[in-house]
Amino acid sequence: MIIFIGKAYMSVAVYFLQNYFASLDFSFEGLYQAMRRSYRFGQKNKVKVHILVPESQSNVRVTILEKQKRHFEMIQEMAKYSSETDYKSAKSKVMINNKEIKNDKYHVINGDCVQETKKLNDNVADLVVFSPPFAELYVYSDKEEDMGNVSNYKQFEQHFKYLIPELKRVLKSGRICAVHCMDLPIQKGKEGYIGLRDFSGMLIDWFQSEGFIYHSRVTIWKNPVTEMQRTKALGLLHKTIKKDSSMTRVGIPDYVLFFRNEGENEHPITHQDTDPSQKDYLPVDLW
What's the rounded Cα separation, in Å, for the pair 128 and 24? Predict the structure, then answer.
């Protein structure tokens, strides 16, 4: 049998072979963790704990017992709360706290985009600009109505299609809706292969299905070296070129997709005073 004797702090998170340690201190967490090194998951034998406390450390004993009492009270309260809470029901009933600021220059609303857009009047927007959640790439909250809180792209499409008709309704005829997006990497760990998902193409299909006209696209260049350093994507690594360059890819740019609402623009946007020398810079497709 191997017996390790050491200070309590050495037994807390370092070794798994100790049988006892010398010296008791005020840390209940340290004492608890040290004992759990022996009394842990998978332990088949009985674990006996003998604690010898000299009279000079009676205050330490009192402190440890008080902390132990609070520890088990906390566990009981947590178990009680967990047993009484229906998390699925509570999740679906969580409401978003709205905040609204309005003056003669602007009107700012902080809330769920679908719910708040529904409250707007018809034909009130001259321009719509936004960046949607990138499907399952990020989860922003546990709210059921959160577009990013989905498990697949089909669910995201169902969520997102609540918004598109409302955007079409509030946007004036002939005016532009600009959507920032990017194509998304497909991860081998999730789907069994490495590739790209045509998220921009999916957005185009969804907007066109609701009556928008696909108007234009701008590519926003991003540094592939920065992307490689941030994501460590296999297709951007130098070792991939050396090992198998067929897996090498270019960096993933951002896009701004422009959709035009159906109908004629009743209030043309004129630029008669534009400097003619700048005209060649206006229609470029790369920012």
Answer: 66
Give pLDDT, residue 2. Answer: 57
Closest CA to 218 of 284, 278, 280, 126: 284
pLDDT score at 264? 95
User: Which regions of the chain are under pLDDT 50?
Assistant: 92
The pair of structure tokens assigned to 260 is: 């035009």
| Largest Cα–Cα separation, the chain | 94
Position 7 scores a pLDDT of 59
d(CA 278, CA 281): 6
Which domains does the chain possess? 8-85 (no CATH), 96-281 (3.40.50.150)
Which structure tokens are listed for 34? 């040290």
CA distance 40 to 47: 10
Cα 93 from chain centroid?
A: 21
How confident is the model at residue 280, as a pLDDT?
61
pLDDT digits (tens, 9 = 90+) for 185-214: 988 888 889 999 999 999 999 999 999 999
Interhelix angle 28-36/58-84, rounded to 10 degrees, is: 70
Residues forming beta bridges with residue 101, ordered by sequence position:
108
Q: Which amino acid is at 281?
A: Y
136: nearest Cα among 116, 117, 121, 154: 154
CB atoms within 10 A of CB 264: 7
